[in-house]
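Technical annex, item 7. During the second reporting period the consortium partners agreed on a shared format for inverse folding records so that results from different sites could be compared directly. Each record opens with the tokenized structure and is followed by the designed sequence. A conforming record, contributed by the partner at site C, is shown below for reference.
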């Protein structure tokens, strides 16, 4: 008998910062009805261009435990090419003195995830998410975590790379790289996989 065990990924944090990123240009699976496909396309038109959408985040900032910022699905749907970068900047800035370290640790794990997606040809993931988490409490290490979550729409890849997922993952990586690099250069210009600045 096999079981799936749920894990509380936030248990290790005193002041967790957690972001959920819905991945892929297309979030409906191959068996979706026409109505479902239309519904998903209308829900967030920018998804086709970005390859992901922010479903929200929750973060602590400052020293007071009441310093809490919560962004929900509606906020995520209001992110577009002009302001999605600011959303990442805001989220990754929970540890003001260690922003570069949080970005670097996030990238290390995103690179591993990309390497896996570039090599695996068994599964295609639809409506799956990446969960980003780190510790905002400065008395503790950042303990950055990047996890793939939500597997209810996984289909056989039939030997093909999951380009739908990789497109969005490459854009997320690009945004975090530019954020990290902005500490040295002072500029923050993003070029997405689609070639849009």
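Designed sequence (site C submission):
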């Amino acid at each position: 008998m096999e079981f799936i065990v749920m894990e509380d990924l936030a248990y290790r944090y005193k002041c967790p910062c957690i972001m959920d990123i819905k991945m892929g240009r297309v979030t409906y699976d191959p068996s979706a009805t026409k109505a479902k496909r239309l519904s998903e396309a209308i829900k967030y038109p920018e998804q086709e261009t970005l390859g992901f959408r922010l479903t929200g985040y929750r973060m602590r900032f400052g020293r007071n435990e009441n310093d809490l910022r919560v962004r929900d699905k509606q906020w995520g749907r209001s992110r577009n090419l002009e302001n999605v970068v600011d959303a990442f900047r805001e989220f990754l800035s929970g540890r003001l003195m260690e922003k570069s370290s949080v970005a670097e640790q996030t990238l290390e794990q995103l690179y591993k995830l990309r390497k896996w997606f570039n090599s695996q040809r068994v599964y295609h993931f639809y409506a799956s998410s990446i969960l980003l988490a780190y510790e905002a409490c400065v008395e503790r290490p950042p303990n950055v975590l990047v996890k793939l979550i939500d597997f209810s729409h996984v289909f056989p890849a039939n030997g093909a790379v999951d380009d739908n997922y990789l497109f969005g993952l490459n854009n997320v990586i690009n945004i975090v790289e530019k954020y990290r690099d902005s500490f040295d250069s002072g500029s923050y210009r993003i070029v997405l996989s689609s070639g849009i600045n």
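The radius of gyration is 17 Å. The beta strands are 16-23, 52-60, 68-71, 123-125, 129-135, 145-149, 154-156. All partners now use this format for quarterly exchanges.
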